[in-house]
Amino acid sequence: MVMNTNRHFYPLLLVLLLLSGCTSEIVPPATLELADYTTIDFPTQGGEREVAVETNQTEWTAVSGASWLLIDQRANTVILKAAPNSMIEQRQTYVLVSAGGLSRRIDVTQMAEKSTLNLTGEALLVPDGEGDAREVRESQFGGTVSLDVLTEDPNWSCEIAEGASWIKADKVTIGSKLLITIAENSERIARSGIIFVRTKDQSIKLNVRQEGTLYYLLPLLTPESTKEQVKDFEEARHSRVVQNASYLSGGAHTYHTVSPLFYEIKYSFDRRNLREVVMQCQTASEMLDDEFTKLLEEAGFEYKADSGMERVFIKKVIHNGTTYEIFANLAYGLPSVEPKVVFNIMKRQQGPMPTFDHLPDGIGEMNLSRQQVLAWESTHGGTYSDRNSNREDGYYFFDVLDKTYIGRDYLFKDDKLVNMRIFTYDISKFFYSPARGTFKMTDEFKDLLQREGFTETRQTGDIWERFYINRARKMAVSARVTSFATVLSGQPLVVMLYIPFEED
Q1: Is 439 helix (H, G, I), strand (E, B) or coil?
Q2: pTM score
Q3: Residues of 366-392 as b/e, b for ≥16 C-beta within 10 angstroms?
């Protein structure tokens, strides 16, 4: 019997066809693309950036790798929000976008805030007109200077420029300080070096200047300075006291300095305040050198005169509302006097003072004969004093006692007048007193001398200090306050000395 196999084949085919029609729809693979797919840079102040997300997935996520970067996820966009960066270091993070098993990464970088940098400290100077320049100055003896470093950067550094091995700079982490150690300078020449203080993006140039060894120097000359202030000043430059003659009414302090030129300084005080300073000098030539003159001028002194034995400088100072004059007398050629500089601190005349209508000059001439002088005195109120005279020595004294004169005396040599003194009452017409026991010529009397032709000055180095010269009259005059037991019962008075003046 032959079987009909087709009868069974066709139903099976139908079943297979039916089964094939019921198979699930094929799903396409997931896709994920970002519009900005590399790195996003934010400025220091922060901000927002939008990134388009292209995906065939209905669900996707975006995650930030840092708290400072916030994510705002919307339909097809992710918004990145960066907060301001107050740190001094640049910061980085990422954003991870995921969908359908796919991930895409966005690298995010934000710029840092610039670090601030500053230096402070009592020793720090900011020279005028030099912008941001900073400077530290030290004496020849060196020492240690501490500066505060103001910065947010803990990694700040310090570096000494080449050629300044005498400087040491250390970073002190605790308290953020710069410690500068300066070695002693044994040379006369001043020296300088540079320290650089740096953060990652800031730098300060710090100049370090050190004085050379003390050679040319000046004393403390501030008016009204006390013994204590002088002591502090001198000890600061390593002078040592060798004499302390302090008294309730004044006294003097003597110091030996480290200068080989001006080796000794003597300060004299009127009660508590400084009145006079004497600096002993090793050699006159170096005292007269341009370098010392420059030092005086830089300190405010002005050159006034040079007598061939003494050079004079004057400085005017206002201290506590009072005007002072400081005289610097460089004595270099005075007989039997070692080279020295004498500083006198004197109060200036506080107001107008009276003086004479005409210069008290007695007979008014020199080189007159004895007879001529005696004849003139007989008609001008003079009374010869035998008690105060000494004819054998050529000395004659005359009492006058009028409104101007106390007396006049004369010294003759070979019957020629070589010396005339005039004694007068009113000190205030000549001098004012800037300090107890001292007298200084008034402006008005100086003007009187000028008007009457005494226009030149010569220093003497003795009790007369200086003479005023009239070349036309061939005479010179000086004046000082003194007293004589035999004149006016020893009371203070003014004596004027007239002498002949010969051309150089």
Answers
A1: coil
A2: 0.56
A3: bebeeeebeebbeeeebeeeeebbeee
Residue 395 lies in a domain: yes
CA dihedral 228, 232, 238, 241 (to 10 degrees): 0
- Whether 443 and 402 share a structural domain: yes
**What's the full length of the chain, in residues?**
504
User: Do 236 and 341 reside in the same domain of the chain?
Assistant: yes
Instruction: Give the integer Cα–Cα distance in Å for 145 and 121.
Output: 9
Structure tokens at 33: 């693309």
Tokens of 421: 């003194």
Residues 175 and 205 in one domain: yes
- The answer to whether residue 13 is domain-embedded is no
Asked if residue 343 belongs to a domain, the reply is yes
- Spatial CA neighbour of 268 closest among 244, 233, 238, 236: 244
Q: Give the pairing type, strands 39-42 and 102-110.
A: parallel
Residue 129, domain CATH: 2.60.40.10
For the chain (504 residues), the mean pLDDT of every run of 10, in chain order, is: 49 51 72 82 91 91 93 91 86 93 92 85 76 83 94 91 94 92 93 93 92 94 92 93 69 92 93 88 95 96 90 93 92 89 90 94 94 96 94 95 91 95 94 83 95 90 87 95 86 95 76
Q: How many domains are there within the chain?
A: 4
Q: Which domain holds residue 83?
A: 32-110
Buried b (16+ CB within 10 A) or exposed e, 104-124: bebebebeebebebebebeee
Gap between the terminal Cα atoms of the chain: 177
In single-letter form, the type of residue at position 52 comes to A
- Per residue, the 3-state secondary structure of 151-165, as one string, reads ECCCCCEEEECCCCC
Whether residue 353 lies inside any domain: the answer is: no
Apex 135 CA angle, 129 and 140, nearest 5:
125
In a shared domain, residues 457 and 414: yes
Q: How far is CA 164 from CA 160, 181, 194, 206, 210, in A?
A: 7, 12, 8, 13, 11
Other Cβ atoms within 10 Å of 420 Cβ, number = 24
Same domain, 325 and 288: yes
